Amino acid sequence: MFELTLQLALILFAVALIAGFIDSIAGGGGLLTIPALMWAGLPPAAALGTNKLQACGGSFFASLYFVRKGMVDLRSMKLSLMCAFIGAAIGTIFVQMIDAELLELVLPFLILAIGCYFLFSKKISEDDRQQVLTPSVFAFTAALGVGLYDGFFGPGTGSFFALAFVSLAGFGLAKATAHAKLLNFATNIASLIFFLIGGQVVIVLGLIMLVGQSIGATLGSRLVVTKGVKVIKPLVVVMSFGMSLKLLWSQYM
């Protein structure tokens, strides 16, 4: 049975801080927080729900920092935010009805492909390039699709959003990371609502970790603004390979 002690709260606060720092730059913070919550004694559903609460803090403060620095134009993102939110809501409903086993098998290789793209692609830079999709088409395809995935499964959502902005919207890497975090905040909120309705959130613990996430995310966001591609690209590659290995290990070992 789960019991929140001061020592456990401090440990999970520290984990959330580190995860928030990493997540604001490259995504994948859930690789740290979800196992930590399950180690603390939470059932899987409660771990996922509580993780969404603390993740909302990190994605909110990272997004806020990027908006204040002028890296994100909120008005141009309204449609994508709405589509990402709706997609995540639908995904959260579907995950309760559909077997995710096939996605579990395919996901490590998808995330590995993202890592390889960021590692080898010559398109990855600070400069914007020609967009492939208009903002409206991007919203109804990439934003909706990745939002659906985040509600349904979740790992690597930030990396999927960043990849979409780089390859489809023509954004430079720092700008793509900033916009990815904004959409990730929308998907986190959507999923959190449904987890709260289902009673799968340990609110006190989630709020403690939310503070840690917020601090880490603010620190990581500053690095994105000051260092850009120099820090984002290697960390995205490392996190993508790390996520792939962890998912493969959990399936086959």
Structural write-up:
The protein is an all-alpha fold and 253 residues long. Helices cover 77% and strands 0% of the residues. It contains 10 helices and no strands. Helix 1 packs across helix 3, helix 3 (44-68) packs parallel to helix 9 (203-227) and helix 4 (78-94) crosses helix 8 (173-197). The radius of gyration is 17 Å and the shape is globular. The mean pLDDT is 83.
Roughly what percent helix? over 70%
Oligomer: single chain
- Name the poorly predicted regions: none
Number of helices: 10
Please give the radius of gyration in angstroms: 17 Å
Mean pLDDT: 83
Q: SS-based structural class?
A: mainly alpha
Sketch the topology as an H/E string, one letter per element: HHHHHHHHHH
Strand content: under 5%
- Major sheet: none
Distance between the termini: 27 Å
**What is the count of β-strands?**
0
Shape descriptor reads: globular
